[in-house]
Design a protein that fits this description.
Blueprint: E1 3-7, E2 10-12, E3 18-25, E4 34-39, E5 46-51, E6 58-60, E7 68-73, E8 78-83, E9 92-98, E10 103-104, E11 108-112
Parallel strand pairs: 2-11
Antiparallel strand pairs: 1-3, 3-8, 4-5, 4-9, 5-6, 7-8, 9-10, 9-11
Length: 114
């Protein structure tokens, strides 16, 4: 059974940092591209970043380029999203996703506020 469990969200001040983790189980993570999406209140879910199975290729939304980094530790079946220089507009629920098969985690709330 495929499971994705996000953690690491919370409340942070503008300019701060957070690292989100996505623990995968039920499949071999290195075989799949993974992604982080986010959804702010009243807005559609949007792609934040994605990474290939081996971690050799990444892609970022323009709004987070230069501030966010996606990485993975396939030995731990875990994908990370390092978020730096956070802005209030980064406030959203962040979801981990296995692209093939459209599997999603439950989401973790990130709130950026003074």
């Amino acid at each position: 059974q495929v499971q994705l469990v996000e953690s690491g969200g919370g409340l942070v001040q503008p300019g701060g940092s957070l690292r989100l983790s996505c623990a995968a189980s039920g499949f071999t993570a290195s075989s799949y591209s993974m992604a982080w999406y986010r959804q702010a209140p009243g807005k559609e879910r949007e792609l934040v970043a994605r990474i290939t199975g081996a971690g050799s290729n990444t892609k970022f939304a323009d709004s987070v380029k230069g501030r966010f980094t996606i990485s993975r530790d396939n030995a731990r079946n875990t994908v990370y999203l390092q978020m730096n220089s956070l802005k209030p507009e980064d406030t959203a629920v962040y979801y981990c996703c296995r692209i093939f098969g459209n599997y999603w985690g439950q989401g973790t709330q990130v709130t950026v506020s003074p």
